[in-house]
């Protein structure tokens, strides 16, 4: 079902993107050093789900961001397996959940590589979300807006244990320059082609990697404004010395707006 979506193995470190690798499920890996949080504090967070057609069982494969009542933004590498979206949940194992089908998917036309630039897809929902204290659209930056200060990343990271499903946050993250980001990855993966694209990417660094397979497409935010979406990371999760790479949402506002306008 889930193929090993790890393109490069080098010693114990590798680049990792997209839906979770089943082989990781048994390992205790999670958004690091994450704390459990309530969806009310991050009501724009969505869980993108893959569902087994025969058994109807769904699982978190990626994070996502509520753009408006009909649209979710996530990583393009999550598009293929995206079937449903859960919103308004701190615990994905809760009994009564808001689960909405994905009706259509619009990948960024210039996304070509699994860990290249333009790593975004817009998922159109089959029915409109109802907003409340647990379900709210994200505030988006203006086109080209730059940020400083501290940020928070969210993820359910259902791969941390077989059934880990609690919303987590890593707070107090600071941006580093893309050059610094590249150098830090290059130190860990000296023989790999590392692409940090200035138009597409921003990086944070807190001493070790904060996100893991299952968090892709999830939000990096500042006071409720979504500044980035998780794009790729390296294995093992939590790798010391590794920054985190995000898609720079402020450079895609026109595309988001245009795609939604043309397809609504
Ligand atoms: C995709 O790339 C082409 C060529 O660089 C560019 O002209 C076009 O605007 C890009 N599309 C989007 C949606 O950014
Ligand atoms: C941080 O952002 C604020 C608001 O955009 C800006 O006024 C300030 O100059 C920025 N600070 C730095 C150090 O870039
Ligand atoms: C946030 O991070 C900075 C620098 O890494 C650190 O000095 C500061 O104590 C941290 N603040 C909190 C509230 O954790
Ligand atoms: C975020 O909000 C807090 C309080 O709600 C405020 O103190 C802080 O300045 C805000 N940060 C930014 C970057 O707007
Ligand atoms: C999208 O574009 C329309 C038309 O230009 C504009 O009215 C709207 O405010 C834009 N929305 C965003 C989120 O930028």
UniProtKB/TrEMBL annotation:
Spell out the CDD domains in the cross-references: Tryp_SPc
MF terms from GO for this chain are: serine-type endopeptidase activity
Q: InterPro entries in the record, alphabetically? A: Peptidase_S1 (IPR050430), Peptidase_S1_PA (IPR009003), Peptidase_S1_PA_chymotrypsin (IPR043504), Peptidase_S1A (IPR001314), Trypsin_dom (IPR001254)
What is the top-level taxon of the source organism? Eukaryota
Membrane spanning stretches: none
The protein's UniProt keywords, in alphabetical order, are: Disulfide bond, Hydrolase, Protease, Serine protease, Signal
Q: Please give the biological process terms from Gene Ontology that the record holds.
A: proteolysis
Keyword Disulfide bond in record: yes
* All copies of domain Peptidase S1, residue ranges: 30-256
Q: What residue stretch is flagged as signal peptide?
A: 1-18
Q: Name one Pfam family in it.
A: Trypsin
Family matches, as SMART domains: Tryp_SPc (SM00020)
Q: Which Gene3D superfamilies match?
A: Trypsin-like serine proteases
Q: Which family does it belong to?
A: Belongs to the peptidase S1 family.
- Protein's recorded name: Peptidase S1 domain-containing protein
| Organism annotation | Psylliodes chrysocephalus
Write the lineage as a comma-separated list. Eukaryota, Metazoa, Ecdysozoa, Arthropoda, Hexapoda
């Amino acid at each position: 079902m889930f193929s090993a979506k790890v393109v490069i193995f080098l010693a114990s470190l590798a680049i990792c993107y997209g839906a979770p690798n089943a082989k990781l499920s048994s390992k205790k890996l999670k958004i690091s050093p994450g704390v459990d949080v309530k969806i009310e504090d991050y009501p724009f967070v969505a869980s993108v789900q893959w569902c087994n057609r025969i058994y109807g069982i769904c699982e978190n494969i990626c994070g996502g961001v509520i753009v408006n009542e009909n649209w979710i933004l996530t990583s393009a590498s999550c598009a293929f397996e995206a079937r449903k979206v859960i919103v308004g949940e701190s615990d994905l194992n809760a009994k009564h959940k808001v689960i909405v089908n994905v009706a259509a998917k619009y990948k960024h036309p210039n996304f070509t590589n699994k860990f290249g630039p333009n790593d975004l897809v817009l998922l159109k929902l089959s029915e409109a979300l109802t907003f409340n204290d647990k379900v709210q659209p994200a505030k988006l930056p203006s086109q080209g807006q730059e940020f400083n200060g501290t940020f928070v990343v969210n993820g359910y990271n259902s791969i941390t244990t077989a059934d880990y499903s609690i919303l987590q946050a890593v707070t107090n993250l600071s941006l580093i320059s893309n050059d610094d980001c590249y150098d830090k990855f290059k130190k860990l993966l000296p023989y790999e082609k590392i692409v940090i694209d200035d138009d597409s990417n921003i990086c944070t660094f807190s001493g070790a990697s904060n996100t893991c397979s299952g968090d892709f497409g999830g939000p990096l935010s500042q006071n409720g404004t979504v500044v980035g979406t998780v794009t790729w990371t390296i294995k093992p999760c939590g790798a010391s010395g590794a920054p985190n790479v995000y898609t720079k949402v402020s450079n895609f506002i026109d595309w988001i707006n245009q795609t939604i306008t043309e397809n609504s």
